[in-house]
Amino acid sequence: MIRLNHLPTLRIKPGVPRSFTYGRRRLQGVEGDTVATALFANGVRVFGRSLKYHRPRGLYSLDGESSNTLVNVDGVPNVCAETTLLADGMCVASQNAFPGPDFDALGFMDALSWAMPAGFYYRMLHKPARLWPLAVPVIRKMAGVGTLAPDFQAPGRRDEIYPAADVCVIGAGVAGMSAALAAAEAGLRVVLFESRPWPGGAFEYRPGAARDGVACFQKTAELAAAVKASPHIRLFLNAPVIGVYSNGLVTAFQRGRSPHPFDERYIEVRAASVVVATGCIERPLLFEHNERPGVMQAGCAHRLARTWGILPGRTAVFSVGHDPGLEAAVDLFDLGVEIAAVADLRQDGLDPALVDALSRRRIPLLRGWSATKAHGRRRVAKVTLAGANGRFRKTLDCDLLVASAGFTPVTGPLTLAGAKLAFDERTGFFLPTCLPPRVHAAGRITGRQDWHAVAASGRLAGLCAIQDNGIDQTAAIGELADALGSLPGPVRGAKFVIAPDSGKKTFICFDEDATVKNVDQAMAKGFNVPELIKRFASVGTGPGQGGIPGHNLPLYVHQSGASPDAQPRPTTVRAPLTPTFLATYAGARLDMSKRTPIHDLQVAAGGRMERLGVWHRARRFSEDVHSREEILSVRTAVGILDASTLGKFRIFGPDAVKVLDRVYVGDMTRVPRTRAKYSAMCNEDGCLIDDGVIVRTGDNDYYLTTSTGRAGVTVEWIRYHTRFDDWDFGIVNLTDAYGVINLAGPEARAVLQRVTDADVSNEAFPFMGYREFAVGEVPLRAMRLGFVGELSFELHVPASWMAYVWNLLMDAGKDFGIRPFGLEAQNTLRLEKGHVIIGSESEQRTTLHDVGLGFLWHRDKPWARTVGDAALRQTEHQPGRLKLVGFRMADPSASPPRDGSVIVDRRIRGYVCTARYSVVLKEPVGLALVEDDSSAKGAPLAIYEDGCGGRLIQAVVTETPFYDPEGLRLRL
Amino acid sequence: MAFTITCPICGPRSGYEFRYGGQDKGPRPDPAEMTPETWCDYVHMTDSCPGVQKEWWYHRAGCGIWFTIYRDTTTNLEVSPDSPEAVA
Q: Is B14 on the interface with A (CB under 8 A)?
């Protein structure tokens, strides 16, 4: 198609082609086209088929008000062709039509509409119930809008930004830009959102002159240039607002531009003041077959020509109810469209200049007339017009019917912000009666349609926004309000009209194929409020989010007299105001994780890394999932483990010990300088949340470790539980500042002695001792602990020296057969010792007593008001609790039950926490939480494992530790 | 969390930065005067009244302090501690 390429309002570059495919056709658009305009320019008139009746649907609007133009683009279903900019190489396909939209095999559905009254799905298909599963796949197939492959990967990248702003303006039309400029002139930071790919709004393409004689589009372009030049305004184009919340929070998403149309960015702004200048959309005219391809709104027809250089039709009939509709008729005539007639709903109040322009062009104007029926099977071929009382009729040939009942304001953001709306008789709009603090409405949304009045109301809102930011504007606001009073006020809107013979095929909602007759049926069923009818008859619940029926439904219900309200009442609006990819809400999948200082060394040593919480940790160092070699090397020689993920903290200050006594169950007043004290933290319920060691590194100076999972919340926990006490202490998170090496095994001392001058003999550095010495000149903190049940040294090394010390120990240990071991080996080793891991051997309800660590609790420190102390007293002898026990298999050659298997008799009595085959003991051992009456030594446990087929696994409660019960090996 | 919280050190910040610490119920009761019931109430029970309540917040993604604000739970707006509604 040849484009009009001389218009100053064009947004396309006619010389820059963009090629794409549509079904099997290879087509060409130009830069600046949306998918919809490119298809339209290539002669596509039927874009798709409707949801229920498979009626042909075409281009009706240009801002995604309906689902008419939903297409599949590059495998992504339900892409709105109207708002997606064309990119080179796009693959576009139609939806819900087979073999294609022009001829659809299910087109006969339209003739069956009588069988699908309002509430069809609710009423018809649930009795008998067994029909429903049969019906669902059929309905899905017939009434789908797009399909998604199960392995579908959403294309595009997503991110999110949180720009700072003093003023947030929604809508970059004349009012929005005026408001933004006013605020920017006062030096405020302004964020300006525009859903279209360019600023300008309703005046951006209109050639008509404003009151000062300059064309509207020109004046608008000047404003846009000023906005662009302002350093204080951040303009987001292609960015529809999706939510407005209290306290000035506005959320939007920005669609990607060519060549990345599926990139989306979530934007969240909190501003001291919000200006809503979203303007208007057109209110659909209701008549029979009002959604036939070839019927479109006035703005759509006008913009196709003015913005994209496409003539919307050859011969047009206009049936409108507003001056811009008349302006469009005049302008399209001048651009080469034949206009058969212009019908206007209004008897009077038409702009005399436009009436004059029509008559000069010999275009017949029918006042008080409107379209009552569109004819034509797949496209409009004729239209019947009728006078107000329906007596006079006229049928005209045409291939374009421009139909619009007038304007309706886009009030979604205002409603979300908390504004109360009421019906206004003069404009026919729902206008805000009271606005929440620091929210302002400006522009056409208030009913004004004159360029200067719209600009002035925008500027006024801008001044109010400045005032909200604490800069006095009282004088300027008063002055401008006076000036605005002398400009044209809100325009009288056309009355709600519906042709008397319409109903069966008069669509009030295109997305859900809901007709006026469906609304009548709903009202006949007793639904009398638009809010309920909306749901029962599915009016405005589709992708257009009420863009088509949002205003007509309340007006129609009100006119019918069914509504109990004195005035029409709008239906509720909710976020998101515009359909958004779920992927955009999910955001970028940033996998935030941490690596220990010797991550690479472990990988080089064959470590199989896995994610545990935020950390990457080595699970094992060989193919063997049981890590037998690693276990044996710790038990018989020496092993080395990276335990850097342990939480590490310093607490210091005169009240540090009070803090420790508050959160730890033990008595912290007598921690000697040379000993490590093992203790635990409970929550208020006495349940075990953490364990670790505490050492005193100086006067009023302590160093403590927590479990890996608690490292992130320990500071918060400690500060919370001391928040009422004005204690003098400091706490520092050293988790990332220190790495930890655990050197364990009978040869551990020999290895350590090779790399240090310090005396690490059993006499000089006994079990549970704490020492500070240097290894290869690196000062470190060493503790003799025994989590894995062997002689072991826990070395806390400054993070940057970890690799050095690790390598030093590996070299020194070569002669002793040192090898790194991973979490799997550690898990089995500590299990053999009966040591607990919080989270494995405990759950939310497990107290200190339940896991057998009650001995850590110092019951006589009431002064400390220890967290959990009261609950520990109450639960100490409480019956019926799950207790931690060790168990062996009745048949030692059986394999260990899977972790988490339940213990049953007639009911569930507990569950297996951890069970492993012990290489050293040559039989499986495990720990389980079981009800206290089954926890005595020798009690039988019957374990139900997933997939055991009802054959319970028999085990017996035994004492722990399984390995080295006297603890001699720890003290070697 | 579509609201801001005023940290006494960092000023008004996005609610995302904070962790909620519950209604302010005063310091821990003296263990000597405590029954299991009063203790349970102290730990677990809150008033859950619509309106202004004094509550604890932790500036997790900020300075790391616990502090109290008065918040109207029906509007999520902070109320000045000096205002007549602000009773703990």
A: yes
- Give yes or no for B56 touching A (CB within 8 A): yes
Question: For residue A809, what are its two tokens?
Answer: 């120990």
For A740-781, what is each residue's pLDDT tens digit? 999 999 999 999 999 999 999 999 999 999 999 999 899 999
Those residues whose C-beta lies under 8 Å from the C-beta of residue A951, and which sit 6 or more positions away, are none
Q: How many CB atoms lie within 10 A of CB A933?
A: 11
Domain match, A723 and A747 both: no
Whether A874 maps to a domain, the answer reads no
Residue A519 belongs to some domain of the structure: yes
Among residues A681, A709, A733, which one ends one of the domains?
A733
Is there a single domain that holds both residue A633 and residue A655?
no
Same domain assignment for residues A226 and A261: yes
ipTM field: 0.96
In a domain, A852, yes or no: no
d(C-alpha A145, C-alpha A149), whole Å: 13
> Of A673, A822, A841, which is closest to residue A742 (Cα–Cα)?
A822
Which runs of E-coded beta strand occur in A524-587? none
A431-443 burial by CB neighbour count: b if 16+ within 10 A, else e? bbeebbebbbbbb
CA distance B33 to chain A (A): 12
Of B31, B66, B75, the CB nearest to A870: B31
Report how many domains make up chain A: 7
Q: Give backbone dihedrals phi and psi of A604, rounded to 5 degrees, phi first.
A: -60, -30
Res A706: pLDDT: 97
In A187-322, which residue ranges form alpha helices assigned H by DSSP?
Answer: 216-229, 298-308
Contact B66 A865 (CB under 8 A): no
DSSP secondary structure letter of residue A456? H
Residue B14 to residue A865, Cβ atoms within 8 A: no
Could you state, in order of their start, the residue ranges of all structural domains in chain B? 4-27+38-79
A435 and A557 both lie in a single domain? no
Structure tokens at B56: 């604890």
What are A93-110's pLDDT values in tens digits? 988 777 788 888 788 888
Neighbour count for residue A634 (Cβ, 10 Å): 29
- Domain CATH number, residue A295: 3.50.50.60
Residue B75 has pLDDT above 90, yes or no: no
Structure tokens belonging to residue A405: 């009942």
Same domain assignment for residues A263 and A301: no
What residue in B sits closest to A865 (Cα-Cα)? B31
- Looking at residue A417, what is its pLDDT? 93
* A492 occurs within a structural domain: no
Cα atoms found within 13 Å of the Cα of residue A75, Cβ hemisphere only:
8
Q: Which residue has the tokens 């790919």?
A: A197
The CATH number corresponding to B4-27+38-79 among 3.30.2270.10, 2.20.28.10, 3.40.50.880, 3.40.630.30 equals 3.30.2270.10
Range of the domain at A694: 647-733
Same domain? A171 vs A276: yes
Mutation pick from B30, B38, B39 vs chain A, by most beta carbons of A within 10 Å, is B39
Q: In the β-sheet with A25-31, what is the strand arrangement from edge to edge?
A: A25-31, A13-22, A91-93, A70-73, A76-80
Residue A523 near residue A560 (C-beta atoms within 8 A): yes
Q: Are A634 and A781 contained in the same domain?
A: yes
Q: Which residue of B has its CA nearest to A713?
A: B60
Q: Is the pLDDT of residue A673 over 80?
A: yes
Residues A275 and A166 in one domain: yes
Task: Reply yes or no on whether the pLDDT at A165 is more than 70.
Answer: yes
Find the CATH number of the domain harbouring A692.
3.30.70.1400
Helix, strand, coil percentages (3-state) for chain B, rounded to 5, are 15, 35, 50
What is the token pair recorded at A255?
């669609």
For residue A637, report the phi and psi dihedrals to the nearest 5 degrees: -135, -105
Q: Could you tell me what percent of chain A has a pLDDT over 70?
A: 99
Nearest to A270 among B14, B28, B43 (CB): B14
* Minimum-distance CB partner of A862 among B14, B32, B43: B32
